[in-house]
Amino acid sequence: MPDTFSQPSPSLQIAVIYNPEDSHDGPELALTDSESNLAAAAIANSLRMYGYQTSTYAVSEKNLYYLKRKKADVFFNMCEREGLYIRVLRQLEKYGRIFTGTGHDVMKRTLDKIATKKIFEEIGVPTPKWQEFVTGKETPRNDFIYPLIVKPTKEDCSIGISSQSIVHNEVEMFHRIEQIQTSYKQSAIVEEFIPGKEFHCTIIGNGKKAEVLPLAELEFPTDFQHDDNFIFDYEAKWIETSPRHVSNFISPAPSMDVNVAARVQRDAKRAFLALGMKDYARFDIRFNTKTKKWYFLEANANPSIENMQNEATVKSAEARGMQYHEFIRNIVESCVQRTYIQQPKTIMS
């Protein structure tokens, strides 16, 4: 398969930055960071295959400001913890450093489910009916149809989402809203629940030349194969001992007609451009297999790209014909090329 991008100079020094597990984090967040060092090492090893000089660098509150002096031409940004992540982006931007992925303004927008929903609606990308609950005393919109699903507005990695998030009446809804406001100190978003299958759509590149990879379909656990109410919640995603734990994505998606998939991919491309995302991104989508309608749930400007066979991004890249190391290299090259266009004397020989 021909390379997606032309290759810049392999003499570039690339620092893969990540946030290690922090003992001060709560148990939910700590689990999502538990293998971040291994993911960073896998990315660094992939880039070494092409001759890039690579290193890994664990970023914390204590050493955040050393990014100014860190010797690197490009930072491959693997940081995920929201508060720290935004500060990392601000530091990289402040000192004019080159890094993969979006800047802090777009990252804040995509981490906010409310802001993302508004953009989906503005450009006509289908998304479930929704409402934000700030005080927990708001009157629910009168066109809601149960069941609904209740989520924190500013968490990712399925934090704050469980099978109890699906509610079937107003009493359950307000109880779940109160739980979220108490536990996560933020507003809740309530949206109509879409029965059916879950898909992830990965995009790589920039601007109109960005490429939408084949859709990846979540393979439900054996006991839930025919459960249209199954969701990729925290337990399913992170608790390996749970019967709800999911171990696989399939790409191309077997449950979606290729013509429908193409329309979903077009919507993903429009959302990618409207949100101002860069280099790579992923969208989470529910597909009602009975009505054949799809709904965009969330945008992920910094999705997981670990070298694991159960990762949606990895499966989509493989379906496109890219091995993992090629996928990682293409992200770097996408970053370098857009930066070279903006600052032709700063990078690339």
Q: How would you characterize this protein structure?
A:
The protein is of the alpha+beta class. The protein has a domain at 129-192: ATP-grasp fold, A domain (Dna Ligase, domain 1, 2-Layer Sandwich). The protein has ten helices and 13 strands. The strands form three sheets. Strands 8, 9, 10, 11, 12 and 13 form a six-stranded antiparallel β-sheet that branches. A four-stranded antiparallel β-sheet has the order 4-7-5-6, sandwiched between helices. Strands 2-1-3 form a three-stranded parallel β-sheet, with helices on one face. Strand 8 (197-205) and strand 9 (211-212) form a beta hairpin. Helix 5 (113-123) crosses helix 8. The longest helix is centred in the last third of the chain and has 19 residues, at 324-342. The radius of gyration is 20 Å and the shape is globular. Mean pLDDT is 88; it is low at 1-6 and 344-349.
Features:
4-stranded antiparallel beta sheet, disordered C terminus, globular, Dna Ligase, domain 1, 349 residues, single chain, disordered N terminus, alpha+beta, 13 strands, 10 helices, 6-stranded antiparallel beta sheet, 19% strand
Figure out the total of helices: 10
Class from secondary-structure proportions: alpha+beta
Quaternary structure:
single chain
> Which percent range describes the beta-strand content?
15-25%
Shape: globular
Residue share in helices? 25-40%
Average predicted local confidence, pLDDT: 88
Q: Report the biggest beta sheet as strand number plus sense, adding barrel if it closes.
A: 6 strands, antiparallel
For the terminal residues, how far apart are their CA atoms?
A: 25 Å
Would you give the CATH topology of one domain?
Dna Ligase, domain 1
Specify Rg, calculated over alpha carbons. Answer: 20 Å
Number of strands: 13
CATH class of one domain: Alpha Beta
